[in-house]
# Entry
Amino acid sequence: MPEELAFTPASELHQRFLRGEISAREIVDAYLERIKQVEPRVKAFLSLCEDRARRQAEELDRSRSAKEPLGPLAGIPVAIKDNLCVKNHPATCASKILANFYPPYDATVVRRLEEAGAIIIGKTNLDEFAMGSSTENSAFHPTANPWDLSRVPGGSSGGSAAAVAAGEVPVALGSDTGGSIRQPAAFCGVVGLKPTYGRVSRYGLIAFASSLDQIGPFGRTVEDCARLLQAIAGPDPQDSTSIPEKVPDYCGGFTGEIKGMRIGVPREYLGEGIAPEVRETVQAMAHRLAEQGAQVEETSLPYTRYALPAYYLVATAEASSNLARYDGVRYGLRVKAKEAKDAMAWTRKEGFGTEVKRRIMLGTYALSAGYYEAYYLKALKVRTLIKRDFDQAFARFDCLLTPTTPTPAFRQGEKLKDPLAMYFTDICTLAVNMAGLPAITVPAGRIEGLPVGVQFIAPPLMEERLFRVAWVVEQIVGFPSWRPPLEVRA
Ligand code: GLN
# Structure
């Protein structure tokens, strides 16, 4: 498949399909070929949905010939993180415990994507149950960063980020509990958005920490992310936490107009632990945005330093409860034993990986009698203070600008034996989940060939504002023309 087609933005691919320059079937075949070319090196996917994709493509081609109305994503191939349910197709969560799980229904986001004409092409790799920051916790195989195959793509949605960066798909979905869309998007040089908590239905997302989890898009352009969000956002009777508010138009703000936009740069995000080059990238971007008429000012979010410990209490507590359902009885792996309690224990021992077990133990401890007040309840109080910090900042600013990650992508294996070092890679993203806010990461430059992202954070439901400012960054940086060094043999 020609590189030029592999790196075509989704919005343009859709136009070409509408104009009849390419059929949906040709699009699917071309991307499946591209996937076969680069997958041996990138390993972004856990499974492909070839039959479903071809069927959807043929249906689209038929609709187009019959001049039937076509959806806003017609002809666009999409990859789906493997913790989202696609009916009758494996949803493993990159865990042995779900290796044989075939969900009997589609996640709401999957249904909405297909209704909009998108083509589900495959399921992408992740850290087991989305717990991790490097995709090395997958029970099946790690994924490589397309910019440097010896480095991690980030995580936990590393497969989706790598697939988009490598031109295997123009867009993908991931989930973000503490940074799992934004951190891998930054490491792989693509755009990633974590929507406001409740903006996108979680029905059919296999739960990690339900009060933090949110589904969101990856793309190589800001507009592509906006189009994807447009299709998946909105209330859903199947998810009681989904927000009833109407979905605004996300694709109308690409005017370059940010004059007077008040952008706060919290100093806590530029201090200790942030690589100097990353700090400089953020400061340079702040300067460029000020040149375009934004009012950029330093600010402070004093409770930032407590975000990491509080997150790891709330997230593990919820995970320990959510993962109690994997008992070998209803679905997934079952290790047989004479006694029911042995069957349950052995199934969990055999089925879960080290990091998942660590989280279940931490969370169970934080919720246990005697420690509940000291740990879990305390973390909830800190969560309120973190939220208050943001509320106060948004009284003065339209959005906040921070780094997305403290460093560019690290080497495979580098942090595997040090869970705290791994947790620390989400230091810039997790407070946003604790506060339920929307945030976007956009590539802002490259350091020694590796992409670096900047993050914008907005008040609840202000995704449109994030797209507007991110689009300006896109014009400044020009990242849609970036190509990772993945030369493909003809
Ligand atoms: N890396 C963080 C964690 O391990 C966030 C993961 C996520 O957002 N799913 O919990």
